[in-house]
Amino acid sequence: MHPDVTAFFDDATNTVSYVVREPEGSACAVIDSVLDFDHASGRTDTGSADRIIAHVRDQGLDCQWVLETHVHADHLSAAPYVQTQLGGKIGIGANITVVQDVFGKVFNEGTEFQRDGSQFDQLFREGDSFHIGQLRGDVLHTPGHTPACMTYVIGDAAFVGDTVFMPDFGTARCDFPGGSAEELYASIQKILALPDETRIFVGHDYKAPGRDDYAWESTVAEHKARNVHIADRSRAEFVKMREERDATLGMPKLIVPSIQINMRAGKMPPAEDNGTTYLKLPVNTL
Q1: DSSP character for 34?
Q2: What dihedral angle (degrees, nearest 10) is formed by the CA atoms of 137, 139, 144, 146?
Q3: Could you tell me which of 24, 7, 91 has the C-alpha nearest to residue 61?
Q4: Mapping DSSP to helix (H, G, I), strand (E, B) and coil, where does residue 43 land?
Q5: Which residues of 241-259 are buried (b: 16+ CB within 10 A; e: fewer)?
Q6: 4, 27, 192, 196: least CB-packed within 10 angstroms?
Q7: Residue 231 pLDDT > 90
Q8: If residue 32 lies in a helix (H) or strand (E), which one and from where to where?
Q9: Can you tell me the distance from the alpha carbon of 220 to that of 215, in angstroms, rounded to the nearest whole number?
Q10: pLDDT digits (tens, 9 = 90+) for 10-54
Q11: pLDDT at 285 over 90
């Protein structure tokens, strides 16, 4: 099946969110929504998510899933807000429990923070499937960027999160806790094993040198032929390139608030006794 895909680009975080609709019918899913966050003031805003919500309502769609490809380190998820407005189940990879365990320790969350993925409605594993109306989605576990990264193959479209970017930009970093360049290489091969005509929808775009416009759609065949990090590289060459490149990268601007919120399915930490919610900043840790 050939689902209808509408993309929403968030300029502040270079994130691409998607509404995926069954080709005949009104069922849809929202993938990787964004909650706007001003780092200086600590204030959130729902403008980006509201664009998605308005589209779903204007088209008369029935939101059945609110999906996350992974625990994002560069933007806050708007999944619970989208769910309150549109409905649908919030889903993520089952290895969210690994991420929760690692970052629960980083942020010293204590025993009140559940590390069993129970904040989410559905935990997906390799080989699982789900439906958006009559449209079937299949789940691939594609770790490397994070342990919980998933690719959702919905009809002839694959939503890969941060596993690969556009062919002229390459692939995702692997130096976050739980990341692995070896695992990323294996995950990319899993994606490249899909039919050549499969549409690849990426989670971010940063405009590669020489390209004037943002882009987010390509195909498996295009990645095989000209992905600048993959084409004509062996596993060993890829791992060496990725690890050397990662060593030069700084932390994402929003990693501290993003992880604390996204590992809770987009919910804020519990408010303290004065009614205010606080985020922790670990010093000399990340």
Answers
A1: -
A2: 80
A3: 24
A4: strand
A5: bbeebeeeeeebebebbbb
A6: 196
A7: yes
A8: none
A9: 15
A10: 999 999 999 999 999 999 999 999 999 999 999 999 999 999 999
A11: no
pLDDT higher than 90, residue 66 = yes
pLDDT value for 286: 82
**Integer Rg of the chain from CA:** 18
**pLDDT above 90 as % of the chain:** 95
Say what the pLDDT of residue 89 is.
98
Residue among 204, 172, 176 at smallest CA distance from 188: 172
In sequence order, the β-bridge partners of residue 161 are 202
- Predicted pLDDT of residue 15: 98
Distance CA 184, CA 204 (A): 17
pLDDT of res. 62: 98
Provide the pairing of β-strand 4-10 with 15-21: antiparallel
What stretches of the chain show up as alpha helix (H) in DSSP? 47-58, 79-86, 96-106, 181-192, 220-226, 235-246, 255-262
Residue 211 tokens read as: 């390209």
- Look at residue 23 in the predicted model and tell me its pLDDT: 92
How many Cα atoms occupy the beta-carbon half-sphere of 194 within 13 Å?
27
Cα 37 from Cα 32, distance rounded (Å): 15
Q: Which two three-digit tokens encode residue 75?
A: 């933007």
- CATH class entry, domain 4-252: alpha beta
Distances (CA, A) of 79 to 34, 129, 168: 8, 20, 30
Domain extent listing, the chain: 4-252
Q: How many CA atoms lie within 13 A of 205 on its CB side?
A: 23
Helix or strand or coil: residue 4? Answer: strand
The type of residue at 230 is I
Concatenating the DSSP letter of every residue in 83-123 gives HHHH--EEEEETTHHHHHHHHHHHTT--TTS--SSTTSSEE
